[in-house]
Amino acid sequence: MLWACVLLPHLALDGVLRRRDDSGPLVLVDGPIQTRTIVALNAEARAAGLRVGQRLSAAQALLAQFAVVPHDATEVGRWQTFLAGVAYRYSSEVCLLPHALVLEVSHSQGLFGPWPEIERRLRADLTALGFRHRLAAAPTPHGAYVLAGVGDGLAVAAQEHLRRALDPVPLRKGRLPQSAQALAGMGIRTLGQLLRMPRDGLRRRFGAELLDALDQLLGDRPAGLALYAPPDSVDWRIELSHEVENVAALVFPLRRMTADLAAYLSSRDGGVQRFTLHLEHREGATVVTIGMLSPERGAGVLFEAARGRMEQTTLPAPVLAVRLKAEHLPPFVPEGRDLFDERPADALPFEQVRERLRARLGDDAVYQISTTIDPRPERSQRVGARDEGHAEVWPRPTWLLERPIPLRGPAPKVLAGPERMETGWWDGDPVRRDYYLVETMQGQRAWAFCPPEEEGGWMLHGWFA
Fold first, then answer.
1. Hey, what domains does the chain have and what are their CATH numbers?
2. Lowest-confidence region among 185-194, 280-289, 414-423
3. Which string of DSSP letters, residue by residue, matches 392-456?
């Protein structure tokens, strides 16, 4: 087996930075109000002389203006769970560890390629989402966890090489139980020294907990980790850094949330057809419902559909937070594409154009034609969300007239036909016609018929695009 570890040393800070569109010094603080301490800071704050562990009062004396955000452990857990959903794209065995994820990737190499290719893809996903990380691989999850804390990009494929890779690791980076801190007083500095000590003596001195941790590290004992299971619904919330009174100012958090939703849906191979945005005010919330004709998971489609709906919303009060909820995540069926697709590179997908039109013009402004079992042209098509009927083997015009009208001008050129249609005798509205695909003198292609009981004269019933 091969386990990969995604270490997230700056998870709390990255979760805050990715939802802000402003720059400048920023710090995360924790602790009582009177003695708040900096627990994380961005590069601008570090360049100004602030540091982790510094009192907030001392930092304010050193730097006049910088953003202060309280550290929220619940928010950190939410981001870690979200990234577990992203990692689920590469493996069905994903586990959560403190500030890290581990996933089994040996069974995924047949789909994604060897570990270097999986590593490249995983890094690209995490970087695009705005999370700094370290990656390492080892035959055991705890071994990968330890190696990721030592350096970025370390990989050990064979079980027999794992002990050699762990030998120089400092004891303080060995992810060992709290009781192992006493080993430093005994002159033990590395994991290699600890692994070579007599087990009976370690058991008498430190109990079974330390030996169990070493066995899990080397793979001699089951890892004892709970597998992550992706939820069947989404409920995410972003608290804004300031009150927003204009819908246009919500575009940045909206783009980020829909991109996250697209990444999560892609990881679980699903889509979404309906979700809601809750724009929270001091009292109450404005609910914006986004519905699409079919399940989608493209970031561009989701963003355009949500932005179009939100632009039509009038805010009764400033917005303090944005919440995204999706109760049902149906399967997603990707669109079929031709091998030699001749569409321009910058052309928008049809689904994105369709949802953009529906968002801007309304749900009833865009529809498509669906077939029925009634063969009469006047009744063979209906407006529907999707085509659920039988596909015609004969050509049918894209513009079908409500009723046939005389075709004026010289006699057209017959391209195909006739197609005899004789039906409707059972309900008192019989139809008896011979349809032809014809071309007029102006080069237009039409669908016309000659009534069998009449001599001459063409009746136009539709135009081909």
1. 1-24+66-230 (3.30.70.270), 234-326 (3.30.1490.100), 394-463 (no CATH)
2. 414-423
3. PSS---SEEEEEEEE--SSPPEEEEEEEEEEE-GGGT--EEEEEEEEE-TTS-EEEEEE-TTS-S
